[in-house]
Amino acid sequence: MTDTPFPFAPQATDTILDWTRARIADGPDPKHGAQSFAALDPVLGGSITAGGIGADAAFRLFTDTIVPSTRPFGHPTSLSFVASAPSRAALSFDAALGAAGIFAGNWDGGAGAIHAENQALRWLSDLAGWPDSAGGVFVAGGTLGNLSALHAARDWRARQVDRPARWALLCSAEAHSSIKAVARVMDVDVITVDPDAQGRMGGDAARAALTQAGPERVFAIVGNAGATNCGAVDDIAGLADLAEDFGLWLHLDGAYGLAALADPAARPLFQGIEWAHSFIVDPHKWLFAPYDSCALIYRDAAAGAAAHGQQAVYLDTVDKAHFNPSDYAIHLTRRARGLPLWYSLAVHGTDAYGQAIARTRAITQDIAKGIDAMPGVELLLTSDLTVILFRPSGMSEPEMETWAEANRRSGALLCLPTRWRGQMVFRLCIVNPETDPAQVLGVLGSLTGDDV
Ligand SMILES: Cc1ncc(COP(=O)(O)O)c(C=O)c1O
């Protein structure tokens, strides 16, 4: 063995790969979940030592303590927040990608990986009906994608009009919390528009709010292409008209919902997307890829590059003639986090993606129908995508919380409460084509004492 400060026996690598193989085959344990600091610290607190605890002991901490104290978002019974449902192909490949150690910030470092990632971005651009000029980059998550897109939007707008005293963006009151976080980072105001009863921002309502707020200060309209809490898709065509009329940038937050572009039957929901200036979609949500990745795409990639990129003398040797992903978002070093999506797409084909999305939507409809038929449970909303909101009429808020926690602990179902129109309700968001409606309805039957 060469002299190295970090000796590591091949058997230790085997141990890790064996566990990885089993985990990918079996999936996560639905009974796993967060543990308290008090439970974790006695085990993990002393794990960094001067001499090291060795490969076996360190990996045992991972398998026996770290993994069991995390939420099993990839399990088919995990129906809260926006979970994740990575394909086995994508998960397996991700392990290899880690081993390959590719620097994908610029072409010099990661040409092949970047070219392959761009195939996946091209697929998404084609689904949106965008021209050859479209392009972008995979960033860590939707928050960073929204920030990078909206920075490009303001940069673009600032080249057309005089800078106002305060910039503002306009979005639905149902916009994801990341939009407000981005506005804080950018130090811009947020003009919110009240959505309709289904949580959808209409073009007319947005127009009225824009006119009232003063369009001169606004640089972008942010449309929901799948609002997180209620699944609503805004009136994208109406928003595109509005953006066109006032010379504004239209950004679509499709972190969750734009995955449904892959299903031809769902595509009409996004009518008007062809006129948007940018969108994001997170493959780690509903495009069957592992954490973490967000596809950020500009209809005109040059507008993204005009706003981003870093210059430094030590970077002068980087080949600027080629496509450098670091020029399209707020980052420099990056892993080729779009490659697990590329690999899974290449393996299974895009039709399989369309079918998986269609199946997830069908599962949602089946569950919603079952809930609607339950006595004592009010179905409040079934989105066109995969969010369901409902309320058991006989339960108090603390009882709802207790019920949710009991099912989380037993591993039967992760179904947590949210708030809708001022009251606590249960929310399901299904992104896993392996979710079994009968199993879910069986658990929900305990809300009323009836097993379905
Ligand atoms: C619609 C929407 N936008 C943005 C985000 C933020 O994405 P991320 O958590 O990947 O930063 C989320 C996360 O759930 C989301 O649902």
TrEMBL record:
Keywords: Decarboxylase, Lyase, Pyridoxal phosphate. The keyword Acetylation does not apply. It comes from the Bacteria. GO terms for molecular function: carboxy-lyase activity; pyridoxal phosphate binding. The modification N6-(pyridoxal phosphate)lysine is found at K285. Its cofactor is pyridoxal 5'-phosphate. One of its GO terms (biological process) is carboxylic acid metabolic process. Belongs to the group II decarboxylase family. This is Glutamate or tyrosine decarboxylase. It comes from Thalassovita litoralis.
